[in-house]
Amino acid sequence: MENTINEQTTTQVMTPEQFLEQYQGHRRLTRRVIEAFPEKEFFNYSIGGMRPFAEMTKELFAIAVPGLTEIVSGKTVEFDEHRDYGSTKADFLKKWDQDTEEINKLWSQISLERFQEEIKLFGQYEGTVLSSIQYFVDNEIHHRAQGYVYLRALDIEPPFFYDRS
Amino acid sequence: MENTINEQTTTQVMTPEQFLEQYQGHRRLTRRVIEAFPEKEFFNYSIGGMRPFAEMTKELFAIAVPGLTEIVSGKTVEFDEHRDYGSTKADFLKKWDQDTEEINKLWSQISLERFQEEIKLFGQYEGTVLSSIQYFVDNEIHHRAQGYVYLRALDIEPPFFYDRS
């Protein structure tokens, strides 16, 4: 049995632990982008009619823990990107850190076999557990990069993209 | 042997084919972002001192096929994001489509076992084959999202993020 598990591990393209580390690495970078915003601009600054970065962050909150909670429990969770997390960057960072721990706990409850399982997330988005969580990560990279442009337009140097420490 | 391969496939978090499909799905979306730019703005438009989208696209060209060529051949390839691909969007789109085919060909030469292999890409970036290619995808999402902000600022509706067809 021990050997079987080891053999499986060595032949994985990506282990569940590596997938989690990719996600949390990106989340650490997104946290630094939130930190880089001036307090007021985090909530108000926008280009081309897009949402301020605080609103994009609310979308990320609405996806990460609620989505993983649905994946773990099998019970449909409501997608709501307009929840109130407070009115300061500190409020958002506190929620961010709570979610970091919660994501680790939820992840440990997803067995290797489940990543290929077909699901219908938030009652509407069809895909596998794999493609759903890839979407979480890709969507976070996408919105965070929009935050990078906001920071550049504000003449603020964003954190290095490749630093996931 | 047939059974062994099938068993491995069913217990993969992500198969090599799924990884390729994630990459090519993102590349199809990036292609639509290039198409969405007006000819002139593709080469000239910028926010906050950032590069025009054509220059970001040159970076993507410098990574995808050269990076996979190094992974397949084991021979260090030079990273050069300033190569000349022509002066029109049509030139860039032609190169884009050539690379799509080339990526498929190169990918088919990467065996499942290689994704966990440690490499030093372009002679300098240390990681596994997995983390290197994840970086290719993540970096493309990152720069493409900056293109989304450019398009919004130009009052052009970008393609839907979730459409990878």
Automatic annotation (TrEMBL), chains A, B:
This is DinB family protein. It comes from the Bacteria. InterPro entries: DinB, DinB/YfiT-like. Keywords: Metal-binding. The keyword Endoplasmic reticulum does not apply. Pfam families: DinB. Belongs to the DinB family.
